[in-house]
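User: These chains co-purify. Model them together.
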Amino acid sequence: MNKNDNFNVIEEVKNLETEYRLSNTQKILLSTDGSVTSILDVLKGNVNIKTLLQEFHKADKFMAELLDIDEGEEVNYRVVIIRRKDEPLIYASSYTPIKRLTKEFKEDLIRADIPIGRILKKHKIESRREVQAVEVKTTNKELTKIFGTEVDLLSRKYNIIHKDNILISIEETFPISSFTSDF
Amino acid sequence: MNKNDNFNVIEEVKNLETEYRLSNTQKILLSTDGSVTSILDVLKGNVNIKTLLQEFHKADKFMAELLDIDEGEEVNYRVVIIRRKDEPLIYASSYTPIKRLTKEFKEDLIRADIPIGRILKKHKIESRREVQAVEVKTTNKELTKIFGTEVDLLSRKYNIIHKDNILISIEETFPISSFTSDF
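Assistant: Joint model of the two components:
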């Protein structure tokens, strides 16, 4: 389950900083083990999400390894944009093994446009977050269109762990030109 | 246990902003439900703590109510400065009911100068954090001396919840002149 137990997010962010000038807010968004939703809420005002994709899959080899489940088990794959009003802030995709969800959590994940941080809070889920990777990526057509810019993207992958298992595996991405001002 | 369940930290920070100009970093430090240690690590470099006080008390009425324990139960009270090298960053006090700690957690809490966020991570503790209060306070002699400034202080109180009980109740304080630059 802890394939990347030795990953040190602080060191990795420092490595990125040898090439890129990152703001405090960017560094926190890349490394925090807290809710990104609540950080965006406090910086931007109450955020909402727009769901781009919501699918159920039988886990293939990639998903099974990612989530530490068996191939064929059911996985929710969700792609959303976290927004302030209509302004896109963060593009996020998540893989969630259905068998690890309570009925109530599953309903919130599937039915409503609720950010995952807010679902965890609502159901008082005790968890921890393990950042697996941080990187700078070149953009693509979809993200250029969403964010209205062709600049590089900051991205991170992390797992939300609950009862010693991966509850959700998340990737978050935003333009390197975002979150650069201090106030 | 959830005396302050309706407390909305985002709203409270917004209220403070009507009177004070807060930086993004300050707002995140006041509101995050993640580890403050790891935020400081990524912003400042690897932080350390200096323990000012480490005491064991039989819980009085105040502590019993704060921690949802019985009067007379054993409580660890710890006051530390979180520092980058010798630079003081955050003044933090914590109340911890001993009966809720594992042996290993207790040893780390008592023996070594390890920030609580790092202890939780080391022992892979699944938890959630509930912010109970955020405020601006006038400083006092002790904090003026520690931080070398007489400006007002930003402060917050929060509980770390584990297995539905308060594991640690923490207050963190820093000068309103700290964490104001963006890079």
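The CA atoms of residues 51 and 80 of chain A lie 4 Å apart.
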